TrEMBL record:
Keywords annotated in UniProt: Methyltransferase, Transferase
One protein family per Pfam: Methyltransf_11
UniProt GO MF annotations: S-adenosylmethionine-dependent methyltransferase activity
Claim: Methyltransferase is one of the keywords in the record: yes
Species in which this protein is naturally found: SAR324 cluster bacterium
Keyword field contains Ion transport: no
Domain Methyltransferase type: from-to ranges: 2-44
GO annotation, biological process: methylation
Superkingdom per UniProt: Bacteria
Protein name, entry field: Methyltransferase domain-containing protein
Length: 126
């Protein structure tokens, strides 16, 4: 992700999903994306904010432990909040931010967990 094997200005657009949260240097990864996308091209990035997850369960102690360990296992769990600033530092034009709530329901006999977390989607032209 920090050295993408394509020439400069290769692509008209790029879509990247839930990747920046896992890379060691998100700024360098974004620099690479800007390098390979043509001037005036479009980049769509989709990243969650893992620290804002909510888990509703009939076992709150387990839910709290699960959420804590889940967010701590990610290099950049707040990337959904940080990404806009990274784009702004690149002087990207036409940045649009869309907060997308994501809800998952799992039903079982005695447990009804509900996971709710916002996902931030950014679109912009460089």
């Amino acid at each position: 992700m920090h050295q993408i094997d394509f020439p400069d200005c290769t692509f008209d657009c790029c879509r990247i999903m839930t990747t920046f949260q896992h890379v060691t240097d998100p700024k360098k990864a974004l620099d690479e994306i800007f390098r390979i996308v043509k001037i005036g091209g479009r980049i769509v990035a989709w990243e969650p904010n893992r620290r804002s997850f909510v888990l509703s369960s009939s076992f709150p102690e387990c839910a709290d432990k699960l959420l804590k360990n889940w967010a701590n296992g990610i290099l950049n769990p707040d990337m959904g909040l940080q990404l806009q600033e990274l784009f702004e530092r690149k002087n990207a034009n036409n940045i649009k931010v869309h907060i997308i709530p994501r809800i998952s329901h799992t039903l079982s006999e005695n447990v009804v967990p509900v996971v709710i977390f916002p996902v931030t989607a950014y679109t912009f032209c460089n």
